[in-house]
Write a structure and sequence with these properties.
globular; binds zinc ion; 8-stranded mixed sheet; single chain
Length: 440
């Protein structure tokens, strides 16, 4: 007969073996199981499992054993994509300055990003070299969203007319110097809102961009078709890789009177100039976008131009702008390409926007809803639609940062009566379990 001691030993031994076996098998922190993965860079559009470990994509495969993951989330019936990248936002808020994009016109990024699957944004020139470091310490360093920036060619940035029309504050050297001080964080140079007939803002921006080896993004300001024609900007002034934003505004001869796309746009595209949506409060018209799409002039990147004037108007958010292109007939795969991998390349962040093994695990999970929907342009005209993507789940660095319907959460009535925070810091940044305190 075995003693109690011996029996206890055997039981403990078995328990230990079982535990270590389970732990050894859990080589992943999180497994998204059975979703339709769209990863345009890797030419994947199929049902795949996605395993994540230490904040990175570990593997994307047809079937990954769920026993190998600490946390398994069933995403069958949903689309799984890289986290969205919105390269035109305005988020330099909090300075208290009225009527200024370095102030009240901007919005805090985290309130507008994760809930629609966006994990990276690029601020489009709210700050120039004089105030960039204030923007950085105030917003960039404190946001959960990855915030990058185009540096305004105006030293004071977008603080309003008297600053933005001042040619003497558009200096290439200090702008390039600041960009070179923060490589990877400052991803481009912005010129915007200029009302005069001079080429100076564009030329200085290109000069700074050339020195810092980064693209220029152009909001072409007030139209001067004689002194500063769009065709000259697109076919002579801009370099390949420079970005023309507000593509469908119709404010600067993007569309001819005949309704056709200005041939200069096609010519510029052949040269490698990039075309970005930049919807905003006043830069997206159905009567331009619909015929341009039919003519084959589609955007390289979809972006919002998020600010206080667009957030509650026709623009709303990144997903709403993407859904407009879906409604105009762009395929879901194409919409995702132009919201992930394309913008990543445009801002030279090729480590983002895809799900290759080892890539940062920024992901979004979308549901395709069917029904009767409406999408509104800058003049309040509506296009009706029947499909839209809605964001269910967003991961930043492999951790849940948004979960609309609790896809990752346990049912409350299946938990112990005194349940506490239900997550685990290895996959959850919303309600991770409290760290176990040292009893001493
Ligand atoms: Zn803008």
């Amino acid at each position: 007969m075995t003693s109690i001691k011996q029996r206890t030993f055997v039981v403990m031994f078995i328990a230990l073996c079982w535990t270590s076996n389970v732990l050894a098998q859990q080589k992943y922190d999180l497994l998204l199981k059975g979703g339709h993965v769209i990863d345009p860079k890797n030419k994947i559009s199929a049902v795949r499992d996605v395993a994540i470990v230490n904040g990175k994509v570990a593997v994307v495969a047809a079937r990954i054993n769920p026993a190998e993951a600490l946390k398994v989330v069933d995403v069958a019936g949903y689309y799984v994509t890289p986290g969205l990248i919105d390269i035109h936002v305005h988020v330099y808020t909090g300075t208290g300055e009225r009527a200024s994009y370095a102030g009240d016109n901007s919005v805090p990024p985290d309130g507008f990003t994760f809930r629609v699957g966006v994990t990276t944004v690029a601020d489009a020139g709210c700050a120039g070299w004089r105030n960039f470091e204030d923007f950085k310490q105030r917003i960039i360093d404190r946001s959960k969203t990855r915030v990058l920036a185009f540096l305004n060619i105006v030293g004071h940035g977008m603080r309003g007319g008297k600053f933005e029309q001042d040619l003497s504050d558009m200096e290439a050297k200090p702008t390039a110097d600041m960009a070179l001080r923060y490589p990877g964080l400052i991803v481009g140079i912005k010129t915007a809102h200029f009302a005069g007939p001079e080429w100076t803002p564009v030329e200085r921006a290109v000069e700074a961009g050339t020195t810092a080896n980064i693209p220029v993004m152009v909001d072409f300001g007030i139209n001067h078709p004689d002194k500063r024609p769009l065709s000259e900007l697109l076919t002579r002034k801009l370099r390949p890789g420079d970005i023309y934003t507000h593509l469908y505004s119709g404010l600067r001869n993007e569309q001819l009177e005949s309704g056709q796309v200005n041939p200069a746009l096609f010519e510029a595209r052949k040269r490698g100039v990039i075309f970005d949506v930049g919807h905003g409060g006043g830069s997206f018209l159905w009567r331009l976008a619909v015929p341009a799409m039919k003519e084959g002039f589609i955007p390289d990147s979809i972006s919002t131009d998020l600010h206080i004037g667009s957030m509650n108007a026709g623009m709303k958010d990144m997903l709403n702008v993407m859904n407009k292109f879906l409604t105009m007939g762009m395929s879901i795969d194409d919409v995702i390409l132009r919201s992930t991998w394309n913008p990543a390349r445009e801002i030279k962040h090729e480590e983002l926007g895809h799900l290759s093994s080892g890539a940062v695990a920024d992901l979004a999970v979308f549901k395709l809803e069917k029904g009767n929907f409406g999408f509104v342009d800058m003049y309040g005209a509506r296009l009706r639609g029947t499909r839209r993507l809605m964001c269910e789940l967003t991961l930043r660095d492999g951790k849940v940062v948004y979960d609309l319907n609790g896809l990752t959460r346990p049912d409350w009535d299946k938990l112990p009566p005194n349940y506490d925070r239900t997550g685990d810091a290895r996959w959850d940044s919303v309600t991770p379990a409290r760290p176990v305190r040292n009893p001493r």
